[in-house]
Design goal:
By secondary structure, this protein is α+β, with helices and mostly antiparallel strands. It has a domain at 2-66. The protein has four helices and five strands, in the order E-E-E-E-E-H-H-H-H.
Length: 192
């Protein structure tokens, strides 16, 4: 067997005898910087022992290369089942969230309807209160529905208060000297 060797601008043909492929011993070791593959072999030219070191920085690939095909199939099946399980769980979670949101929407719409009804009742009550506080409507109800008549000059009793603050009545109102029919009726009924 011959081989070509280039030296400078000259090409030479060197004849060499047929030699068996060198025997290679492979050693594997794990280091901090990755897996190392150490090969020892003899050089064909001079028969010296040569050491070749290759560093493999991959983490998962060497583990997968050492696994059998059956183990690889089991790992792939487990990963597939895990992904299907995650898909089912996420779908169930999505459906529960969708259900909770629709329930909250229904509750909100029900509360809004109740609020609208309360606003309507509140407005009606406010109109009734305003009507009750209106002096003209009070006079009309008192005179027309209840049959009351306006008080005359002799029907009003006035007296002087000792203080201008809050008044509590512990005794009867002092009677004026001139007697009116209302005062006489009160004396007659012993309500004074």
């Amino acid at each position: 067997m011959s081989r070509l060797v280039i030296e400078g601008n000259t090409v030479r043909v060197i004849d060499r005898p047929e030699v068996e492929e060198p025997k290679t011993i492979r050693l594997k070791s794990k280091g901090k910087d990755g897996r190392k593959l150490i090969r020892f072999y003899r050089a064909a030219e001079n028969g010296h022992l040569i050491m070749d070191v290759q560093v493999d920085h991959r983490k998962i690939a060497p583990i997968i290369e050492e696994m059998s095909q059956r183990a690889k199939d089991r790992v792939c099946t487990m990963l597939f089942l895990l992904s299907v399980l995650m898909l089912v769980l996420s779908s169930c979670h999505y459906l529960s969230l969708t259900n909770a949101i629709s329930m909250h929407d229904k509750t909100i719409s029900r509360k809004e309807q109740q609020l609208a009804q309360l606003h309507l009742v509140n407005e009606n009550l406010q109109h009734e209160i305003n009507a009750a506080l209106d002096l003209n409507s009070l006079y009309q109800v008192a005179t027309e529905e209840l049959g009351m008549v306006p008080a005359g000059e002799n029907d009003v009793i006035t007296y002087r208060a000792r203080s201008s603050g809050y008044i509590r009545q512990y005794d009867n109102v002092p009677v004026q000297k001139k007697s009116t029919p209302v005062v006489q009726a009160l004396h007659f009924l012993h309500l004074d």
